[in-house]
Amino acid sequence: MLNITKKKLLTINSCYLDSYQRLFSCSKLLSGYSYKIKSTPKLTDNKRYETLSTPVHHPYQIRSNINNKLTNTLYRQFRPNDTKLMILKDEFDPLSLQNNNNNNIINVSNELKSVKRLEKNDLLRLINDFYRHDDIKKLATDHGLDLYLFKNVYVSFRKFLIQSTILPVDFQTVLNDIISGASHITDMFPYFLQHAQQMFPHLTCMEDLKKISDLRNPANWYPDARALQRKIIFHAGPTNSGKTYHALQRFINSECGIYCGPLKLLASEVFYKTNAAGTKCDLVTGEERRFGDSEGKSANHIACTVEMTNLNTVYDVAVIDEIQMIRDPQRGWAWTRALLGLQAKEIHLCGEISTRELIEELMITTDDEFEFREYKRLTKLNYLDGAVETFDNVKPGDCFVCFNKNDIFHVSRELERRGHEVAVIYGSLPPGTKLLQAQRFNDPNDLCKVMVATDAIGMGLNLSIKRVIFYSLAKPQLNEQGEKEKNNVTTSQALQIAGRAGRFASAFPDGEVTTFRHDDSPVLKDIIHRQVETIKRAGLHPTAEQIEMFTYYLPKHSLSSLLDTFIQLSQLDNNLYFMCNIENMKFLADIIEHVPLSIRVRYIFSCAPINKNMNFVCTMFLKYARQFNLNEPITFDWLSKHIDWPFKTPNTIIDLVHLEQVFDCFDLYLWLSTRFSEIFPDKELVQSIQAELDRIIHSGVQNIAKLAQQTDHLEDTKDTVVKSSNLSSVS
């Protein structure tokens, strides 16, 4: 803003210095005046102009009314830095405009008599034409402004033009030329872009950020793997076909190898089998490393969860299990990373045939040799015509499959009322409890002959199931956007679960599949007879190194907003890859945003494998981060004060669920201890206490029907108390 005083002194804001220096050099009007430079107001200055048209609660904060959309989150997350904005007018006051006698004239450059005034109607028409012009929209897209950002910058830019008393001279001249027809409307765009860059600083370094987030050829990220001539052998087939057995035989008999599985249970099973076969093997998961050698020497063979795959060691043989999970919306990136980056002469893939075409296309990009082997199921699997319909028709070897815990508790109670002892398995149970429940069910001498489980039995456990009974077919699922949807199970999921019925060399070699409800029976048959959907794309995920490079360009922004920007700018080969959902990671990053941590540490913490819906675990996650920031070791003494140790046997389902969350807090501690051992030093002690907790949870699960009944009784008691209280208050 230009302010001429009686002492012939001009005060010029620094962002307009260039324009007014040119003006002083050529204008006689300003001869005899001197000038001084005034810095641009900061965020706390009352002269800073609000950039939104919607009502706000804080005068300097950009807000968005739309959540959970990628393009919208950029606008919500990126608040203007202390940059030199052209916006210099006081906050908009509609009353002051209404009381202005010269409302029809925009009073610009009043001091410069030689510059033509702009009429308000002409300016409004010009701004509206600018917004609608296709060339402007194309220019905006080319400079990183999607339609949503373009709209919001336009709103702010329009306000600036209408409400400013003074405009930069060169900009005013351009506007006059456009109105008179001497210039094209696109000549306004450089000023619009400057405004946009001041609102969203990442636009100023767009080209560099695009290069960092260019994910179009991820095979090139692993030059050591590309230097090897690798052979990819794909073992495809249904459950109980022997495909994994053949791959593991090659793994066990090799000089050195690595097994990469989707679950801790599967990695543990391979760890025990390999050592039992006489080949030393280590176990590596996110929470622990266990040695096959009694003296603690590293073995040549490793069984690990897929996220822990070591890409720096050269192996003779690698096995990647359940390769179809390369399409998983949350975890698919780990399978992509292992497939593209493993340094192994032979890589054996095990999984569904629906992944074959994608693997073949990916191998073209890596120039690896490809071999395909298909397997058939070893035993019979019959889909029954009739439904079970009543719990009185349950037989030994039956397994009810439910898709929520409430159904688990209900079915367990109904079965126990009829005298059945029930084994229970669901996802949030500790691995030890799952194994003990599976052993009870498999043991021919145990009285437990019936199982109730979620789809957690689909992989990771060997079970002697005669008949799989789908209690329902509706399953909550997450899509690629991280949104929960409730639909019928997919063909792939139904086949995976149904395939657990019958097992080669078990008490029930042939299996049967049916539903509990009569109406679900034809629906299930329709689902399993559909063609399995071909898997077309593999998951990708931003790495810590890429986010650190973003931080160099955008040092003032949160990890969550950096991730949003990365996703927004990333370029993928959409025929082969998709970006995995990172909402859980952003959620964790926001929890600890106020805790002072380096970007690398913050990234690692935000990758922690915890369920954001578990409030107690999220609270402990925040406490861990705060202690880390204080650089104080988190000992078991500190931990015991926050988890109500020693533990008590659960009396209700609520107690059981709480203990499951405490178990996850121990898992989180162990996960962090493998990455920050000095801050989380009591790894062995925590493991021993966790084993004790596992046994307590198992005892609770064995009495799960009683716990559910006790929970219902407490709820009924609460309802009675509430009703009595209401009646008393009425009387």
TrEMBL record:
Keyword Mitochondrion among UniProt keywords: yes
Helicase C-terminal domain span: 383-551
UniProt xrefs under InterPro entries: DEXQc_SUV3, Helicase_C-like, P-loop_NTPase, RNA-DNA_Helicase, SUV3_C, Suv3_C_1, Suv3_DEXQc, Suv3_N
Main location: mitochondrion
Family: Belongs to the helicase family.
Keyword 4Fe-4S: no
Name of the protein in question: RNA helicase
E.C. number: 3.6.4.13
GO cellular component: mitochondrial degradosome
Coiled-coil intervals: none
GO biological process entries: mitochondrial RNA 3'-end processing
Organism from which the protein derives: Rotaria sordida
Keywords for the protein's UniProt record, in alphabetical order: ATP-binding, Helicase, Hydrolase, Mitochondrion, Nucleotide-binding, Transit peptide
Enzyme class, broadest EC rank: hydrolase
Gene Ontology molecular function: ATP binding; hydrolase activity; RNA helicase activity
Subcellular location: Mitochondrion
Swiss-Prot/TrEMBL catalytic activity: ATP + H2O = ADP + phosphate + H(+)
Cofactor(s) this protein cannot do without: Mn(2+); Mg(2+)
